[in-house]
Amino acid sequence: MSDLVQVGLVGVGIIAETHLEVLAERSGISLEFTVDPNVAEPTAFRGTRSPHYSGLVEALDAHQPDLVVIATPTDTHADLAVQALTLSSARVLVEKPLVHDLASLTRLRSLGETADVRGRVFTAHHFAFSPEVRWGAKQIAEHPEWGPVTGITSAFYDPYVLRGEQAFASYISSWMDSGVNQLSMLARFVDLTELTSADRQMDGGASSWCTVGYRSRGTAGTARLRSSWLTGSSSKETVLAFGRSGVEVWIDHTAMTGFAAQGGSLLAAYGNDGRTPRKVAHYRPLYESLLSGRPDPVLSFDTAAIVTELHNVD
Ligand SMILES: NC(=O)c1ccc[n+]([C@@H]2O[C@H](COP(=O)([O-])OP(=O)(O)OC[C@H]3O[C@@H](n4cnc5c(N)ncnc54)[C@H](O)[C@@H]3O)[C@@H](O)[C@H]2O)c1
Fold first, then answer.
1. Where are the beta strands (DSSP E) in 84-148?
2. How many other C-beta atoms can be found within 10 angstroms of the C-beta atom of residue 200?
């Protein structure tokens, strides 16, 4: 992208705060406008306030951004992405999940080459950028002697039961929200192939359980994914088992830590200095990659399409 990146931010809710915090640290960024029908005040960005609109169409009438960031409730992503693609020439970073159903994926795909969907649409699969995930992926790449990943168990808990109906309005369900984070995170470690269980949702959408097939170093395996909002605390953990060598890699996404062990021996460990808040630790490298000119494939439309197809299979 060019030296000065003019950004339009659509949706000024919870996650928008992290986008603004990370964008504000970077040089060469200007916030051209914000859009949110439920927010009256323009947002402060590096001490100044950019024009604020209640709708994206109106904003794109007045501005030519280089990047449109869509950070709105999940079921609005598709409509807003189509508006950004057809009414501007900007790249579009859409919060995860890219879309909430397969019909919306088809709709985006149908814009095809005319709108350069594959070249312009990126999805903020932020969990794939978390430091403990990148550490785990590096360990696996550096240790082929561990053999294939023969089993994965991942459990993601968010305290959204406390937010009641608002959680369903913003995120639809635990599977819609955490399932995408789990799948995009696992894409760092293995090649996902198919969802292997039905009836994923439970507790009225507040919890989920499913199994996903994958391949690792030529071997097929199964990942077990649990997520739930029925808790007062956030806790997220993933365990990768390498059955042939007896190695296990435990990664704690809440603490952003990890370790690898084999029997009673600690093989490697990862920690952090405690200074970087978790969401900043995800979005800082995400933007670094997006704005680098060679965005990580995990941000690509093609990865989002694979994740969406796995995630929404009936
Ligand atoms: N909260 C998180 O930790 C988090 C983390 C990663 C990704 N996400 C994703 O980000 C998205 C937003 O989540 P959130 O937690 O910020 O939700 P939120 O409800 O806090 O914020 C969404 C904002 O979008 C605004 N909005 C609604 N419709 C709009 C429209 N048509 N145009 C412009 N603005 C509109 C709302 O008024 C609200 O201010 C979701 O897709 C979610 O999955 C959230």
1. 91-95, 121-124
2. 20
Give the pLDDT score at 312: 78
Q: How many angstroms is it from 191 CA to the middle of ligand 1?
A: 29
Residue 314 has pLDDT above 80, yes or no: no
Q: How far apart are CA 91 and CA 66, in angstroms?
A: 6
Residue 148 has pLDDT above 90, yes or no: yes
Domain 5-124: CATH class, spelled out: alpha beta
Domain spans in the chain, listed from the N-terminal domain onward: 5-124, 127-272
14 lines ligand 1 (CB under 6 A): yes
Residue 45 · residue 22 · CB < 8 Å: no
- Looking at ligand 1, which residue's alpha carbon is closest to its atom 32? 36
Determine the Cα–Cα distance for residues 15 and 74; give it in Å rounded to an integer.
12
**Cα–Cα distances in Å, from 114 out to 83, 89, 102, 111, 155?**
14, 11, 21, 6, 40
Q: pTM of whole model > 0.90? A: yes
pLDDT tens digits for range 10-23:
999 999 999 999 99
**Which architecture, in CATH terms, is 127-272?**
2-Layer Sandwich (3.30)
pLDDT at 177: 92
Rounded CA-CA distance 289/292 in Å is 5
